[in-house]
What we know:
binds protoporphyrin IX containing FE; alpha+beta; three-stranded mixed beta sheet
Amino acid sequence: MPLSQSVTARDVKELYEEKYAGEKLVTIKKEVPTLTDFEGKHGWVVGGFQVHSEGDRVVVVGGLDNLLKGAATQCLQNLNLALGYDELAGIPVACAVAVLGYCAYAFWKSRKHNPKGLPSFPGPAPLPIVGNILDIPSGGEEWRTYEEIGKKYGTDVVFLKVFGNPMVVINSFRAANELLDKKGAIYSSRPRLVMINELMGWSWNLILMAYGREFLGYRKIVQQYFQPQMVSKFHHPVMRREVGTLLYNLLITPEDFAHHLKRMAAAIIMMITYGHQVAPQGDEYVRIAEGVREYADKNPGASAVEILPILKHIPSWVPGAGFKRYARVAYDLAVQMRNKPYQMVKQRIAAGNAVPCMVTTLLDEKVEIEGVDVDDVVQNASAVVYSAGADTTVAALTNFFLAMRTYPDIQKRAQAELDSVLGRERLPDFGDRVQLPYVSAIVKESLRWKAVSPLGVPHATMTDDEYRGRYIPQGTTVLANLSAMLHDESVYPEPDVFNPDRYLPAAGKEPAPDPARAAFGFGRRCQSLDPCHFHILFTLKTMISLQRICPGRFFADDSLFITIASILYAFSITHPENADMDEGIRWSSGLVSLPNPFFCTILPRFQGVEDLLAAARA
Ligand code: HEM
């Protein structure tokens, strides 16, 4: 039964008020079999769960016992999203009272947990009620501050609390692996994100979706479309073509390299998701998607409304509620981003001239998520690809340009390797990778040197947990400090130096681990398969062990390789003679981190490059 139809807003409100005494309201109808025997340690929910009302109770069907509490709470949170603003009219009037009430609630909540009385992880001492609000870094490069806090308190797992809401920051790979990967059954949800999900209307987006049936459905669809076999069969030709256009653009207007990178990333994604060839300038769909991203990045008022979610009910006309008006514009843009390219493909299908792409494939396959309209399923699954895949690729490539400008010797060594394998007759291709270990090491180092997503995407715990004898409550927001892990001196000596050699075998030394183990995030956030459809356990095991958190990682890795190898082959990148060497480059905050704009001189590397590029483009 679809969630929003089965429970009325009144039910939801009452439930939400009792959320933390929620167990009373929850009835386990049926235990879904666990995969405990297969995994040996812990299982996971096999079929998700359903919620519906029976009289005045909510019934949760399905789930493992260790997941159930979290799942039920998550359902209640999801249900809470169904509340319309009108039903809470009058709240603005009582806002001051609500704030006080909330503070009292936060205080109560902070006392209620921790039944065994275990200690929390170390961290700065919280102030009464507001907790560690003053310790939460802002103003840029927050990942560095979190790392410093960890060092100051001698811990790789830092505990903080803001208005009673627990938060954990993980600064080491080991702890992230032990918690987010191995205990994925507990650490696999997302925190409630009031501004972006509830006000700006991103709740359709898999990246930010809390754990649950819909999440699993979308995750499976996206993951299947970006498996390695799909990438090499269907996505490589698009990458080749768009890299050819990128090289040509770099030849003609090298000073616009940042724009060309963005265009290429957008063009690859628009082609594979919608079969749409983006216009060289001012493409309508790219413009909308970029608008959505910019709105999501700026996010004014986010922290206030995140801390006091009740503020989301303030009417837009109230002074100080500018964030509501802002969210409304962002909401409309997000609707356009999902609808417009999708409608374009449907029109082309009707006219018989659609280009095969993710949307046509999903429609042909009649993909389903129970309780979700098929148009919504396909729109949402496709729109997530642009929001997750475009900027991340651009960020990694921009960092690569900066590194090449700063380390000319590394660039020359990679070019010598390319020349020895390819001569001067042809551009690199995917099949050349095995013979290009140094170029491959540059791809790895570009992902490590400056993390694309330095604090990853926040996770949230679905049940209480105990780790190293310390307590992590249910509902904790968990930040994986990927930047700190990729800059761990004991794993990557001299971490601020761009050094591809660290991945190559050397006498008496183990190569450094592939940064992909952290750069693409953590966690077993998905059964890539519905086990009911796979009777051969071997297949299941193989697929699950391959699974990593970012479903686009194979795609990203291949697109970075072909772009980096082709640029190195065709061009030399240097620091402009008249530009200041130390431009004080800083990296932006947010889910994806980009450096400030900087200058590069980009010139063809040898005579004949122009002809090669023209031939490749033709
Ligand atoms: C250099 C490129 C990329 C990097 C560094 C990157 C990194 C990440 C990270 C850190 C996460 C969060 C994982 C976590 O929850 O711990 C993530 C999630 C995700 N990425 Fe990527 N990503 C990249 C490219 C892509 C591409 C090209 C796609 C296109 C399909 C993609 C799709 C996604 C999706 C859909 C999620 C959300 C997964 C979920 O919540 O279950 N990513 N990525």
